[in-house]
Specification:
With 351 residues, the chain is α+β, with helices and mostly antiparallel strands. Helix content is 68%, strand content 8%. The chain has 14 helices and four strands. It has helices at 2-11, 16-21, 23-51, 56-59, 62-81, 89-111, 119-126, 135-156, 161-202, 212-218, 240-247, 249-267, 289-305, 324-345, and strands at residues 230-238, 272-274, 279-285, 309-317. It has a four-stranded antiparallel β-sheet with strand order 2-3-1-4, with helices on both faces. A hairpin with a 4-residue loop joins strand 2 (272-274) and strand 3 (279-285). Helix 6 (89-111) packs parallel to helix 8. The two termini are 56 Å apart.
């Protein structure tokens, strides 16, 4: 029961790993939203500041408008910097919430204490729903502003307006906490589902490596990812068909998984792909030719230890503006030569 409550409060009714897998997506969404909100706030409050010089009804709130404009401009700067420094993302989120909450409280208690407040109640319900964060953290933030409003109301308002406003703040505050928790749960679950579908679309289900879809999507990005060198390693398993016929498909699947694990251990999960039934491709970035050759040698030894064999070809380029198609074709052609040499010495039926 405690774990269920904890997961609901901290991770939107998911688990820690699922939440962490979508954290960057949440941060990106919040960063953009905070920047848009800050820009809109700066314009709207700036317009009201200008009107305060011409319309008597706005003049009493001029200090608040000045504060709002300055705070909004500062928030725009923080939101822009948070793109480079992700740790500032949540600062921009709560600054965005603060500019509206403080504005609502100031209007209700400083400039118009004799009137029943509306602005703060609207902000209380509407503003938190724009962002996505841990439900518990947002609830604590809302409680802080509700308490601040009540304190200010007791300092500036008189009954019966004060009693009505305090009661409304408590009621609307509770409604806001409940609604933001429900909405955040739905948003977080949506992000988690989207992330899982994305992973499934890019992952080979047998081996856990990146699949051909992922390979084709990322292929044209590689020229911009390396500084000095790039190498394509093309691997084709020998004897899969024969093993399937003699020992069954389960044995063939086990061989494919074992070799995939060996390739991944040498070249990493990110840049290793299963692109066909028994074909793998891996890329290395900014390694020397000697380092690549050493990794391939270790890979061959590990495959041999498992009593398997794979044809391997690779093409190393230590210059920029590589043609990826040519790089892959060269590696593939060398792999086919290696395969041809292997079968000259081994009967295909011997397996």
């Amino acid at each position: 029961m405690f774990e269920k409550i904890r997961d609901y409060a901290l991770y939107g009714d998911t688990d820690k790993n699922s939440y962490n897998s979508i954290r960057s997506k949440i941060e990106d969404s919040n960063r953009i939203t905070a920047l848009v909100f800050a820009s809109v706030a700066a314009v709207l409050i700036g317009v009201m500041l200008i009107l305060s010089f011409f319309l008597e009804g706005f003049s009493g709130s001029r200090p608040i408008y000045i504060f709002g404009v300055i705070f909004s401009v500062l928030l725009i700067a923080v939101s822009l910097f948070s793109r480079k420094f992700p740790s500032l993302t949540y600062l921009s989120v709560y600054m965005a919430i603060s500019v509206f909450m403080i504005y609502g409280i100031a209007i209700a208690t400083v400039t118009r204490p004799e009137e029943q407040t509306v602005t703060f109640m609207v902000m209380l319900i509407f503003v938190p729903l724009i962002f996505v964060d841990r439900p518990l953290r947002m609830a604590v933030n809302l409680i802080f502003y509700i308490i601040l409003f009540i304190i200010m109301a007791y300092q500036t308002k008189v009954n019966p307006v004060r009693s009505v406003d305090v009661t409304d703040a408590i009621i609307f505050g509770l409604l806001s906490i409940v609604s933001e928790t429900i909405v955040y749960r739905a948003k977080i679950h949506g992000y988690v589902l989207e992330n899982r579908l994305h992973i499934m679309s890019e992952t080979d289900q047998l081996t856990g490596l990146n699949n051909r879809n992922c390979y084709e999507w990322r292929l044209n990005t590689y020229p911009s990812l390396y500084k000095h060198s790039i190498c394509c390693i093309y691997i084709d398993v020998n004897g899969l068909h024969e093993l399937n016929n003699t020992a069954g498909h389960k044995a063939g699947d086990e061989m494919l998984r074992d070799i995939a694990e060996i390739v991944k251990n040498q070249f990493g999960q990110k840049d290793t792909y299963r692109i066909g039934g028994d074909e793998y491709v891996a890329f290395t970035l900014d390694l020397t030719a000697k380092e690549v050759e050493d990794k391939i040698a270790v890979m061959k030894d590990k495959i041999a230890e498992q009593k398997y064999h794979a044809a391997i070809g690779y093409e190393f380029v230590d210059e920029k503006n590589v043609n990826m198609s040519s790089l892959i074709v060269m590696a593939e052609s060398k792999m086919y030569k290696d395969k041809s040499d292997y079968y000259k010495q081994h009967d295909r039926r011997a397996r």
